[in-house]
Design a protein that fits this description.
elongated; 86% helix; GspF/PilC; 10 helices; mainly alpha; T2SS_GspF/T4SS_PilC_CS; 0% strand; cell inner membrane; Receptor-associated Protein
């Protein structure tokens, strides 16, 4: 049997152990390869789903900073030669430009420090990681994708381990570390506890409050028909397809959103800078 190490997680070890015991190690290794491939695909989809909003935010901040630091000061010098009071909106943008020029470096360093601090704290503290994962699940658009990805991983891992001959409780213990989200991992551990004392899996899933009615019903049918692995495969395929469609839709929707955000930022600053010119022209006229 493979000794558990950093390179071999609990799921891998459980499947290899079951394969050796049943004399079907070659089949199990093929199953592991397929499982890992699907897991990596889901992980890639999640990264893609998170990347687009991050790109929108980054580009917006970058363009805004460049306009405030390099473009607005040019207009400010020209406005000072007018010797007239500036419109309130224009003055507000100029004040923002001056503040950014004075504190921009500290703002950037603070932003980087916060990001690095959150990443470090997430790795070092399970409570922080739990809080972050819980917040991620509540983010509009991205949250539902995270839910579906966790459900797909749960169902796929449970189907593979149970089909390989791993007892249900041990299979669920392996699933807990494969969901990719601590909220679901904690829920799975509670499900393990419930199943260990004789509760049906579908009841334990329902009591967790995280699993949709469809998943609970599919688990109930699988338990009753003795085909839990087949039902979980169907659940996994459904949610994997849902994740694919959701990420593709998000990608398509965010492309025009990026352009709209950039256009809004540039348009707002252009209006603010040209208001004094319009005001001066009206005065002269």
């Amino acid at each position: 049997m493979v000794k558990q190490a950093v390179q071999f997680d609990e799921l891998y070890v459980s499947l290899v152990k079951a394969g050796e015991g049943a004399g079907v190690l070659d089949t199990v290794l093929g199953t592991i390869a397929d499982c890992k491939e699907r897991m990596e695909s889901i992980k890639g989809k999640i990264k893609k789903a998170l990347m687009y909003p991050a790109i929108v935010i980054f580009i917006s901040m970058l363009i805004t900073a460049m306009l405030l630091i390099y473009v607005i000061p040019q207009f400010q010098d020209a406005f000072q030669s007018f010797g007239a009071d500036l419109p309130g909106f224009t003055q507000m943008v100029i004040n923002a430009s001056e503040w950014t020029q004075s504190h921009g470096n500290w703002l950037l360093l603070g932003f980087i420090a916060v990001i690095m601090g959150v990443i470090y704290a997430r790795k070092r503290s399970r409570n922080v990681a739990r809080t972050i994962d819980r917040l991620m699940l509540k983010i509009p658009i991205v949250g539902p994708i995270m839910h579906k990805a966790a459900l797909a991983r749960f169902a796929r891992t449970l189907a593979i381990t149970f089909k390989a001959g791993v007892p249900l409780v041990e299979a669920l213990e392996s699933v807990a570390g494969a969901t990719g989200n601590i909220v679901y991992s904690d829920a799975t551990k509670q499900i393990v506890s419930d199943v260990s004392v004789g509760h049906p899996l579908n009841l334990a899933l329902r009591q967790s409050g995280l699993f949709p009615h469809m998943v609970v019903q599919m688990a109930a049918i699988g338990e009753e028909a003795g085909a839990l692995d087949a039902m979980m495969v169907k659940v996994a395929e459904f949610y994997e397809e849902e994740v694919n469609n959701a990420v593709d839709t998000l990608s398509t929707a965010l492309e025009p959103l990026i352009m709209a955000v950039i256009g809004g930022i540039v348009g707002t600053i252009v209006v603010a800078m040209y208001l004094p010119i319009f005001k001066l022209a009206a005065t002269i006229g």
